[in-house]
TrEMBL record, chain A:
Protein name: Biotin-dependent carboxyltransferase family protein
Lineage: Bacteria, Pseudomonadati, Pseudomonadota, Gammaproteobacteria, Oceanospirillales
SUPFAM superfamilies found in the cross-reference section: Cyclophilin-like (SSF50891)
Native source organism of the sequence: Marinomonas colpomeniae
One Pfam family named in its UniProt record: CT_A_B
Stretches of the chain forming a coiled coil according to its record: none
Gene3D superfamilies documented for this protein: Cyclophilin-like
Cross-referenced InterPro entries: CT_A_B, Cyclophilin-like_dom_sf, PxpC
Keywords: ATP-binding, Hydrolase, Nucleotide-binding
From TrEMBL, chain B:
Key words of the record: ATP-binding, Hydrolase, Nucleotide-binding
Organism of this sequence: Marinomonas colpomeniae
Domain annotation Carboxyltransferase: ranges: 11-213
EC number: 3.5.2.9
SUPFAM superfamilies linked to this entry: Cyclophilin-like
Alphabetical list of Gene3D superfamilies matching this protein: 3.30.1360.40, Cyclophilin-like
UniProt-recorded Gene Ontology molecular function terms: 5-oxoprolinase (ATP-hydrolyzing) activity
Stated name of the protein: 5-oxoprolinase subunit PxpB
Length: 325, 228
């Protein structure tokens, strides 16, 4: 069992999310930065989709009441296990009684904590992910609170070495100098934007507002305008959808996106770049780059290769370090 | 433009990222039409049976097809949709149920009921009567768990959304706007007009099928009380 001493501003249990229920109004949920959560899981020999903790902004601490094997990935929070400092993108054995502390994340927003075997939570509609809107999944469909007791599988596993990814093979996952560039495919109402506004989308930096969460990122910049007002009927949307409300300030739907929307759509951020949006903070800037469907599919293949290569590296290192013991 | 199940208006097609395509049949319409929606339900059923189609999300006279590009290239999705769009609607594609929802009209958001009456130049009693004597059809679910988008609101009650949404409206709110009716499933921000309240639970995770409504279902509202 793991006891929550300090939950941080929003910590939830997430796996790869819920599929197949959008038609009844229940969205995906799931880890915002699925690339980082997959690596955390692989570091502790879990299936890449196992349930992890998604910790926002760091500032969280946990006491372990049983021995296990854990990994931290995503935003670096200068974590410590008791007094010992432990690196991000690293896995290490933990003994009952030890306390893991995460400081505030300096760069990046979301940190993933995986435990061997994955966090125990009931499967609700095919997933353990916390859906904050529907109030299902994870721990009673809510963020963690002080004093919560998180169930984890008993660790039977082999004695595991402490090892992790060196800087050179850690994935690029955080904004560089507070700026992140994401690629998008133009959407249905792109041509309804004025020529100036189309230009603005791809040429200006968009500041991430304070009203940004798992549902969506609100962006601030020179307001965009349509050639004429447009009334749309409700239609299905997806995470990554860049909508344009009447204010002219775009909103990017994220993992907890509504299943339906009615605002005009500028475009949709490609699946491979969603993990970058998971790590932006209010005050950071987003730049948009146009992308073709064909390029997006090719980029997705490359991402998968990149992840497989990291998995392979982890497997090699585990072998090496296990033999050295 | 009026449509019937026999009518096949041209679909407007747009990519929604690399793994979904939006097909819109109602761009030219002022209000969603049942005939067109019936055709969409049929196409959606046929699409869901194809390997590589992960989900079809039916909207109001439109539908979004999510697919796995590695199993089903987007050109093939478009071809399938175009084939199915020409075919006849499936008989008995839906298992239609009826629901009666008890409503206490007015109450906390009485101002909305007054506003609707004023806008439609009716008395509050007439608004309640119109709303509670009409038969509605569930066009689709979405936005919130189990939330129904109901067609069939009398045209006299067609009122635009509030200019600025309320930050918080409790679940069970009986709402209308944009020619549609609904019931809030979760306490949330809401830009529609709240004309009453019900304790009818539209989404219960403990049920075999958590969403109480399904597309095609018939819904009626019944007056349980009026709080003015």
């Amino acid at each position: 069992m793991i006891e929550v001493i300090t939950p941080g501003i929003q910590t939830t249990i997430q796996d790869r999310g819920r599929t197949k229920f959008r038609a009844i109004g229940v969205g995906f949920s799931g880890a915002m930065d699925a690339f980082s959560s997959a690596i955390a899981n692989h570091l502790v020999m879990n299936d890449e989709d196992a349930a992890v903790l998604e910790i926002t902004y760091g500032n969280a601490s946990f006491r372990f009441h049983s021995d296990t094997y854990i990994a931290l990935t995503g935003a670096d929070t200068s974590a410590t296990l008791d007094a010992k400092s432990i690196p991000c993108w690293w896995s290490f054995p933990v003994k009952a009684g030890q306390v893991l502390r995460l400081k505030m994340s300096s760069e990046g927003l979301r940190t993933y904590l995986a435990v061997a075997g994955g966090f125990n939570a009931p499967e609700v509609m095919g997933s353990k992910s916390t859906d904050l809107k529907t109030q299902i999944g994870g721990l009673s469909g809510r963020p963690l609170r002080k004093g919560d007791e998180l169930s984890i599988p008993a660790y039977k596993g082999p004695q595991c070495p402490s090892f992790g990814l060196s800087k050179s093979i850690q994935p690029m996952h955080k904004p560089v100098n507070g700026e992140c560039v994401v690629r998008f495919i133009v959407g249905a109402e792109w041509t309804y934007l004025t020529d100036d506004s189309q230009q603005m989308v791809v040429s200006s930096p968009w500041q991430v507002s304070n009203e940004t969460n798992r549902l969506g990122a609100r962006l601030e910049g020179v307001p965009l305008s349509l050639k004429a007002p447009l009334e749309l009927m409700s239609h299905g949307i997806v995470p990554g959808c860049i909508q344009l409300p009447p204010s002219g300030q775009p909103v990017i739907q994220l993992q907890d996106a509504n299943t339906c929307g009615g605002y005009p759509k500028i475009g949709v951020v490609i699946a491979s770049d969603m993990r970058l949006l998971a790590q932006i903070k209010p005050g950071n800037t987003v730049k948009f780059e146009m992308c073709s469907v064909e390029d997006a599919l090719e980029i997705a293949k490359q991402e998968r290769k990149k992840l497989s290569k990291i998995f392979h590296n982890i497997d090699m290192m585990r072998k090496t370090f296990s033999h050295q013991k | 433009m009026k449509t019937s199940p026999e009518n096949k208006p041209e679909l407007i097609i747009s990519m929604m990222g690399e793994a979904a395509i939006l097909f819109d049949a109602g761009m030219e319409l002022d209000a969603p039409e049942l005939g067109l929606q019936t055709r969409i339900w049929s196409v959606s059923k046929r699409l869901e049976a194809i390997k590589g189609v992960s989900e079809v999300i039916v909207g109001m006279n439109n539908f979004l097809v999510s697919f796995v590009p590695a199993d089903l290239p987007h050109a093939e999705v478009q071809q399938k949709v175009s084939d199915y769009w020409q075919q006849d609607a499936l008989e008995g594609a839906l298992n239609v149920k009826s629901h009666i929802i008890d409503v206490v009209y007015g109450g906390e958001y009485l101002e909305d009921l007054k506003r609707v009456a004023e806008y439609s130049q009716l008395s509050i009693d007439q608004v309640i009567e119109l709303h509670s004597t009409s038969k509605y059809t569930v066009f689709t679910l979405g936005s919130q768990p189990g939330l129904p988008y109901l067609g069939g609101l009398p045209s006299q009650l067609d009122i635009p959304r509030r200019s600025s949404p309320r930050a918080r409206v409790e679940s069970g709110a009986v709402i209308i706007a944009g020619g549609q009716a609904s019931v809030l499933s979760r306490t949330s921000a809401c830009g529609w007009h709240v004309i009453g309240q019900t304790d009818y639970d539209v989404f219960n995770i403990n049920n075999d099928s958590p969403a109480v409504f399904a597309p095609g279902d018939i819904v009626e509202f019944r007056v349980k009380g009026v709080h003015l």
